[in-house]
From TrEMBL:
Signal peptide: none annotated. The chain crosses the membrane at residues 12-34, 78-99, 106-124, 164-185, 206-228, 248-270, 277-295, 315-336. It comes from Dissophora globulifera. The keyword Transmembrane helix applies. It comes from the Eukaryota. Keywords: Membrane, Transmembrane, Transmembrane helix. The keyword Cytoplasm does not apply. One of its GO terms (cellular component) is Golgi apparatus. InterPro entries: UPF0658_Golgi. This is Uncharacterized protein.
């Protein structure tokens, strides 16, 4: 499998092995963190009742909502799953980049790894803030005291050493992959674009086309990542009535389906048929998704108790979604401007396939390739 993807390139083989090792190590550690976090969350739920009763006997104390503490402990589980999925995603992207000798996508994986380093840092901080000791009598202090006294529950935040290990490993692995990517860049160069021909304008159009396709892949991942977090948090929240909860979930599922499935399909169809109508609808839908993400980001900052335990993660994903959304709409607009200039025929030269529709292309077997 590695030989087929990497060919005779030594650095291609190194990149696939390195990425595979990264996926195995981080998935293993995150699985341990996930299991410890579930135990920690369960223990907090066991202790919070007695801790609340014991705190009532104190003359003065802070009055945090016990439900917020339970929610903060529960919702972090989805982030460990997302981190695991991200490792599989980066490995799949690399295999795709190696198969197509796509230098742009390799550079994008370097950036994605940097984002995962930031994500690992946020994981350490967010998990450490579930229970924070305060100077006054408080429910969090009482829970921490119970953890110290009880012999049955494991010590609070037993996953911290593994979370720090993930952060340290991601820094090393991301740095190592960046070096390998530099070697691959020198090795591949822009060789794929040489197949386009001597027309520099056509090469530039193809570069934009490839960047747009690559960004759409990341759009899907980060939009689905945000949706998983938001849905998990909404289900855990006690601030909605059953009817309101139903309406919020239906609205978000509709918008999420549109942003993650319908819009990418419209982009695919628009590129395939060089349809300005489809691309125009894609850009309009992308703008609506941007507005929705801005609204959600404002809610995260303005209503902190509602998003307890997830503020930093949600902010991270929403900001990435906003940046990707702006880039996606820009490159979609540039791709649309390049329609009807012969790019589809030149893509056929690179992929070895014929692109429909083109008058200059004939034959019974016609299919479209985005790589």
């Amino acid at each position: 499998m590695i030989s087929r993807l990497a060919g005779d390139s030594t650095w291609s083989r190194y990149s696939l092995v390195w990425s595979g090792i990264q996926a195995l190590l981080i998935i293993a550690l995150e699985s341990v963190i996930f299991r410890l976090h579930l135990t920690e969350s369960h223990n907090i739920q066991l202790i919070i009742g007695p801790a609340t009763i014991a705190l009532q006997q104190r003359p003065t104390f802070d009055k945090p909502d016990p439900q917020e503490i339970v929610q903060a402990a529960r919702v972090l589980s989805v982030y460990h799953v997302l981190f695991i999925v991200a490792q599989v995603f980066q490995l799949i992207l690399l295999c795709d980049a190696m198969f197509n000798k796509n230098t742009i996508q390799i550079i994008a994986i370097v950036i994605f790894n940097c984002a995962m380093v930031a994500y690992a840092g946020v994981q350490v901080k967010q998990a450490s803030e579930i229970l924070v000791r305060t100077p006054n009598d408080s429910l969090t202090n009482m829970i921490l005291d119970f953890f110290a006294l009880e012999a049955t529950p494991k010590p609070y935040h037993a996953s911290l050493p593994y979370e720090i290990a993930v952060l340290a490993l991601m820094i090393v692995l991301a740095s190592g992959f960046a070096f390998i990517a530099y070697k691959l860049y020198k090795e591949f160069g822009w060789s794929i674009y040489k197949k386009i021909g001597a027309d520099l304008a056509m090469r530039d159009m193809y570069k934009v086309y490839q960047i747009f396709i690559m960004i759409v892949k990341f759009d899907i991942f980060f939009q689905l990542g945000f949706s998983a977090q938001f849905l998990s948090l909404t289900v855990e929240s006690q601030t909605y009535s059953p009817e309101d909860l139903k309406n919020v979930l239906i609205l978000h599922l509709i918008l999420s389906t549109g942003a993650s499935i319908i819009l990418p399909f419209m982009a695919w169809y628009g590129l395939k048929r060089e349809s300005k109508i489809a691309m125009g609808c894609f850009i309009a839908g992308g703008f609506a998704t941007l507005v929705y993400n801005v609204i959600k980001l404002n809610q995260v900052f303005s209503d902190a108790p509602r998003f307890a335990g997830a503020n930093k993660f949600l902010s991270f994903f929403l900001i990435v979604n906003l940046l990707l959304g702006i880039a996606t709409m820009y490159f979609a607009w540039v791709c649309m401007k390049n329609f009807n200039n012969g790019l589809n025929a030149h893509i056929g030269k690179v992929s070895g396939t014929n692109i429909y529709p083109m008058e200059s292309v004939s034959g019974p077997s016609k299919r479209w390739s985005i790589e």
